From TrEMBL:
<dbReference type="GO" id="GO:0006281">
    <property type="term" value="P:DNA repair"/>
</dbReference>
<dbReference type="InterPro" id="IPR006171">
    <property type="entry name" value="TOPRIM_dom"/>
</dbReference>
<keyword id="KW-0863">Zinc-finger</keyword>
<protein>
    <recommendedName>
        <fullName>Recombination protein RecR</fullName>
    </recommendedName>
</protein>
<keyword id="KW-0862">Zinc</keyword>
<dbReference type="Pfam" id="PF21176">
    <property type="entry name" value="RecR_HhH"/>
</dbReference>
<dbReference type="GO" id="GO:0003677">
    <property type="term" value="F:DNA binding"/>
</dbReference>
<keyword id="KW-0233">DNA recombination</keyword>
<keyword id="KW-0234">DNA repair</keyword>
<dbReference type="InterPro" id="IPR034137">
    <property type="entry name" value="TOPRIM_RecR"/>
</dbReference>
<comment type="similarity">
    <text>Belongs to the RecR family.</text>
</comment>
<dbReference type="InterPro" id="IPR015967">
    <property type="entry name" value="Rcmb_RecR_Znf"/>
</dbReference>
<dbReference type="InterPro" id="IPR000093">
    <property type="entry name" value="DNA_Rcmb_RecR"/>
</dbReference>
<dbReference type="GO" id="GO:0008270">
    <property type="term" value="F:zinc ion binding"/>
</dbReference>
<dbReference type="Pfam" id="PF02132">
    <property type="entry name" value="RecR_ZnF"/>
</dbReference>
<keyword id="KW-0479">Metal-binding</keyword>
<dbReference type="GO" id="GO:0006310">
    <property type="term" value="P:DNA recombination"/>
</dbReference>
């Protein structure tokens, strides 16, 4: 079937987005085609602003519209506690819980020698400089519980032993509402090893 070139181009571009296949891209493109011009221009402006108006915070590497992000500027946050995460999406997920009131440090990935991601390609040096500048009492490692996340946590733990900071890692185990019978052995094992006294 021959599709008009502008529509095909929109479908091709939309299908490059994560989790968007060709059929979903076609539905989105057709929806945009049916939408009024103001709605489409508003979407284009929002997407353009992502690239033009956002930058990385000079302190924690979270997204920001200024040199420092709102979290790093906030006097209501506990800047003596820094939660180390892999990506900006992790900051968003943690912030949604309203359980954490400290600062963050976004590594920009995790160690993965097979993909040529070495310590110098992550924001580990900047984390060390933050600690050396003083005022940080605790580092919370909130990296994904997979091989790369575990390797990065182990690497950071070894480095941070040289500094007078408490190093902890977020607990891992069964999710709320999860059934033991459906959990994998590694998750159950971590739930037991990370148990807390009542």
């Amino acid at each position: 079937m021959l599709i008009a070139e502008p529509l095909q181009r929109a479908i091709d571009e939309l299908s490059k987005l994560p989790s968007i296949g060709k059929k979903t891209a076609q539905r989105l493109a057709l929806h945009l085609l049916k939408s009024d011009k103001d709605a489409v221009e508003s979407l284009v402006d929002a997407i353009s602003a992502l690239k033009n108006d956002l930058c990385f915070c000079e302190v924690c590497f979270n997204l920001s519209v200024e040199e420092k992000c709102d979290i790093c500027k906030s006097p209501k946050r506990d800047h003596s506690v820094v939660c180390v995460v892999e990506e900006i999406s992790d900051v968003i997920a943690i912030e949604k819980t309203n359980e954490y009131n400290g600062a963050y440090h976004v590594l920009g990935g995790v160690l993965n020698p097979l993909s040529d991601i070495t310590p110098d390609k992550l924001h580990i040096g900047e984390l060390i400089k933050r600690i050396e500048s003083g005022g940080i009492n605790e580092i919370i490692l909130a990296l994904n519980p997979d091989a790369e996340g575990d390797a990065t946590s182990l690497y950071l733990t070894k480095i941070l032993k040289e500094y007078p900071v408490k190093v902890s890692r977020i607990a891992r185990g069964l999710p709320i509402g999860g059934d033991l019978e459906f959990a994998d052995p590694a998750t159950i094992g971590r739930a037991f090893s990370g148990r807390i006294q009542l």
